[in-house]
Amino acid sequence: MTKVKDIKVKASELELKDKVVNIQRVAKVTKGGRTFSFSALVIVGDENGTVGYGLGKAREVQAAITKGIDDAKKNLIKVPVLKGTIPHEQLGRFDGAKVLIKPASDGTGVIAGGSMRAVLESAGIHNVLAKSLGSSNPHNVVKATILALSLLRDPFTVSKDRNISLSKVFNG
């Protein structure tokens, strides 16, 4: 299992926008019959390199979304965005979901499906090629996408980690 960098961001300092990815009606079977509630998967981001996801459950849809937003604000990560795209290709895996994200040239747009698109747009990535491989379960696809984004490193971090100049990073 790949280790996720601990890059936490404080939500109070950011102007976050939220997107609801998935709402499900879930049932709990009790002695008196079924008790229905709602589960909401929510993505929040400032469209400037910060993104997070959260899951909320409640008896009503709006309460579930609110809980999901609060949970997402606790799980924010910082993503390196260079010229509207990502620095390098990355594969992310979570359970049965695999996602592949690749940088794209200016003007390409976000070529991604469903829940991956919501994560990438909330992160502020405008040009990217993405493919969801394996499971299409929105929860796992979102988690795999967040994992892939958290594994990205910009050239400045790479040069600092390796103690080499930026020109050596680009020229090899």
Describe what this molecule looks like in 3D.
30% of the residues are buried. With 172 residues, the chain is an alpha+beta fold. The strands form 2 sheets. Strands 1-2-3-4 form a 4-stranded antiparallel β-sheet. A 4-stranded mixed β-sheet has the order 5-6-8-7. It contains 5 helices and 8 strands, in the order βββαββββαβααα. The chain has helices at residues 61-73, 114-123, 138-150, 155-162, 166-171, and strands spanning 17-30, 33-45, 50-58, 76-78, 90-94, 97-103, 110-111, 128-134. The protein is elongated. The longest helix is centred in the middle third of the chain and has 13 residues, at 61-73. Helices cover 29% and strands 35% of the residues. Helix 2 (114-123) links the parallel strand 7 and strand 8.
Q: If you average the pLDDT, what whole number results? A: 89
Distance between the termini: 28 Å
Query: What is the H/E order?
Result: EEEHEEEEHEHHH
Contiguous helical run count: 5
